[in-house]
Structure formats: C-alpha cells, structure tokens
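wait is this the right file?? whatever heres the structure
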C-alpha cells in the first residue's frame, strides 16, 4: 500500500526536541499535536511527525520507516559504520555542542598520545574508537549509557569522553575538557533509497522550506 503522507522523525524529548518543532513552525508548517503525543500531524502539508528517541532516528530513517529525520550529528556518527546509513542533507545550525575528552582538573594532558593505556568512559564508543585509531592510540573504552562524568569518581575510568555544551556538568564533577573529538549540531537526514513518486515532491518542498529558514 502506497503511503500518501511523508514521515518525519523528530526527537520526542531532550535538547533538540523543542528546537526541532520550532524549525517546523518557522518553515510555515502548522503542527497539530492531536491525541497522540508520539505522532503529530502537519495540517497544511501531507506530513506526519514521528516523535521518538534520538538514537532510534538514524535507524528509522535508514530502514525507510521514516523518510526524513532531524538528529544530532553525534548520534548519526555513532552508528556502526557497517550498518546501512541514512544520508545527511544539511546542517541546521542549532543544537551545537562538542564531544570532548575530559580529565580530572589536576591531571596533565599533552595530546591524544597521553590516552594510551588509559580507561575512557563514554556513551559514544564508535566515535571515540575511530578517534583513537586515527591517532594510533590504544585505550580501553568503557561504554556507559549515561552519567559518564561520574566514572572517574567511581573508579570506572580515569578519563571521560562526553558531550559538552556549557561545561558546567564536567566542572561540577571536577573535570576539565582537554581535547575536542568532534563538533556536533542538528542535521536533516533522509532515507538512503528513492522515495515513492507521490512523496518525493513533498520531501523536496519540505527541504526547501527548511533551507530557507536556515539561510535566513
């Protein structure tokens, strides 16, 4: 059965959630929450909005469950490089942050080679692994799903690799950022296969609306 409405995946909660909805409204789209908090409807365009976990968005778009998505570049890059990947359309200019190596305040750091043999706690093991490989560093990665900044105090790791916006959380835990692993912001992504003929022009118009907002 051919779908008649485009599906757009957005983060349902977290740092990009409100900004993503604001982007739609700035693009002239009328967002209707309706009775279901997980599925919003655009009243003035044939688009449905799926509100999901941020780390599910690349998979939903790659598998064609959603046609487009807005997600942090950090989340997109954390996907296993062997998995099918969605295509990045454009950077959106909001949700800027950086994935950084952070050490205890009094620890010395003289470059990536200082991480050799060190235990590093992170929620981004794939990105960190590629960074370490690029610098020829062999470190032990401790994969955590949250509260990475407490790892040194708990004795789980000597160093962390965490997403930093203001640095306040690191500072509160006696840590200092010393190395940028990657810069991140919100990006618009699409499925890696052609859209159905009926939905392709809808996607093109949506992308042009978003492009107009980001260019202003």
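ok assuming it is, sequence goes like this
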């Amino acid at each position: 059965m051919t779908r008649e409405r485009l599906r757009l995946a957005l983060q349902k909660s977290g740092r990009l959630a409100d900004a993503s909805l604001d982007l739609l409204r700035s693009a002239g789209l009328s967002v209707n929450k309706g009775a279901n908090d997980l599925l919003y409807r655009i009243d003035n365009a044939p688009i449905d909005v799926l509100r999901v976990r941020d780390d599910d968005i690349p998979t939903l778009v790659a598998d064609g469950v959603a046609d487009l998505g807005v997600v942090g570049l950090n989340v997109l890059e954390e996907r296993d490089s062997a998995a099918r990947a969605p295509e990045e359309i454009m950077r959106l200019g909001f949700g800027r942050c950086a994935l950084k190596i952070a050490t205890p305040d009094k620890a010395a750091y003289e470059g990536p080679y200082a991480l050799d043999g060190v235990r590093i706690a992170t929620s981004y093991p794939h990105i960190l692994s590629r960074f370490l490989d690029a610098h020829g560093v062999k470190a032990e990665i401790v994969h955590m799903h949250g509260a990475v900044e407490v790892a040194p105090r708990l004795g789980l790791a000597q160093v962390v690799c965490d997403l930093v916006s203001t640095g306040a959380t690191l500072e509160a835990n006696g840590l200092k950022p010393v190395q940028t692993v990657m810069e991140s912001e919100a990006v618009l992504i699409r499925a890696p296969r052609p859209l159905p003929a009926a939905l392709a022009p809808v996607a093109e118009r949506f992308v042009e609306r978003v492009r107009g907002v980001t260019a202003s």
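The helical segments are 17-26, 57-62, 73-78, 125-134, 151-154, 168-172, 200-215. so i think its the right one actually
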